[in-house]
Amino acid sequence: MPTARILKMPLGTVERAAATTAPQDVLSEGAATFDILRQMREDILCCVLKPDQRLRFGDLRQRYKTSVGTLREALSHLVSEGLARTEAGRGFAVAPISLADFLDLSELRVYLETRTLADAIRHGTDAWEAEIVSSYFLLSKLAPPKTDDPVSVKREWGKRHKRFHDALVATCTSPWSLHFRSELFDQARRYHWLTMIHARSRRRNEHLDLRDAVLARDIDASCALIERHIRTTVEQAASEVPGLTMESGRRARRTRSR
Amino acid sequence: MPTARILKMPLGTVERAAATTAPQDVLSEGAATFDILRQMREDILCCVLKPDQRLRFGDLRQRYKTSVGTLREALSHLVSEGLARTEAGRGFAVAPISLADFLDLSELRVYLETRTLADAIRHGTDAWEAEIVSSYFLLSKLAPPKTDDPVSVKREWGKRHKRFHDALVATCTSPWSLHFRSELFDQARRYHWLTMIHARSRRRNEHLDLRDAVLARDIDASCALIERHIRTTVEQAASEVPGLTMESGRRARRTRSR
DNA sequence: AGTCGCGAAATTTTCGAAAAAAAGCGTTTT
DNA sequence: AAAACGCTTTTTTTCGAAAATTTCGCGACT
What we know:
The first copy, chain A, has eleven helices and three strands. The first copy, chain A, is mostly helical. At the A-B interface, helix 4, helix 5 and helix 8 of A face helix 4, helix 5 and helix 8 of B.
């Protein structure tokens, strides 16, 4: 069973806490390419590289201090993950965002998050609970970042946020579900930064409620909470950030027409 | 079964716009890298490159007549698709197969196939029906390949089989669902060749039944058919091909110890 | 016997330059 | 004025060799 490995994993490691046993998440941890890939992924997720932004090799080479080949391989991965696009002969660009896309992926997310969470609760262990407690604690020590917070703060919060959510579903027995869940979670992260900019009073204790429901092994309550967690964010985005989310569609068309 | 509830669940409300742009299926059709990628994918899907087989650059370079960089990029993609694995410094290998994996991915497939099919039927058009008729016709002209059929025959049948199934869900309005469905469909293809080897009398008209149910716009019947289509194959594999499906686990270990 | 170490061979990873393709631009043509 | 052409510049794509790493084989040591 793949879960066995998760359980043995030391809980202190901040980096790759969970989801490592999924079918193909692991590229090759030690390689330099992997570092570049991770950096670029973070930059896209945190919107340092903005949607629809063109990714020229000249710039990238300078930014990441590496060769074209390595970059190309990393970009290739990002395309597969849906974080970048490429057209023959026209290089790469950050994947666009749109309200339609956010709605679509959130809909699937609800299914995958509830499915994996329910299964994880059924197969929960002590180590699983411990990692949930631990990762929640780390998350709670950081306030959700505001618009003008430096990127490093956003990055760190994003990391802890992901770690917490990964911890919740870590004991799910379906590697494929976990894999797709993780991919969609990352996709959603891009939209989160946009909604946060406009979010006035942050709804407070959703993560705490979630943690407690999960630790109480209450499947129905947990799934209901995570479903609302996702749906609330979508609705917020749909109503509060219409300008930004629609903007990318225009920009995408402009790029193509030129 | 939870699937009954799933069938009635309508998809998100506002996905019309998203229907046109798939998330990331298209790499870059014109490029040479894309050709190599497609060739390698086919070779893995048809088990010309066998599960757990190591993919050395020397051999690959000769086989596909291309450079290391290009190969690396293609392999990189295959890893993302879950058709290959890689470990830092140890190169690439074809992804292993196992009964557990087949069971897991089939379970998710049932959900994604029924979800996309139901939505596609709701949004069906004349062109959609025409392509279903056409692709079914092409599929029906070829008998399902036997064990000793040449690879080219298997390849062609596989191509038509995929085209038919793609046609069924073509008008689904959820790009993400379509994307994941397609990925899992390809994964399942690898297992199909193994089960076919042992399948005695091929159950005949499943595709025809499916076609007619879909054209009649009967969502419940269509979904029930495709669900059984998937489940039957899994059960067949589980009971009839225990030796083969279990073998890969051993082989994987052997490769590593070597 | 087992294993530890060390050099040789095989293999992977990284790199930047050459080739190919696209974009930009000014001039000419309709 | 808009389209068409040919030129230069920019950017992408492809390639194979150099560097780094792992694997293998063999002899010495515990």
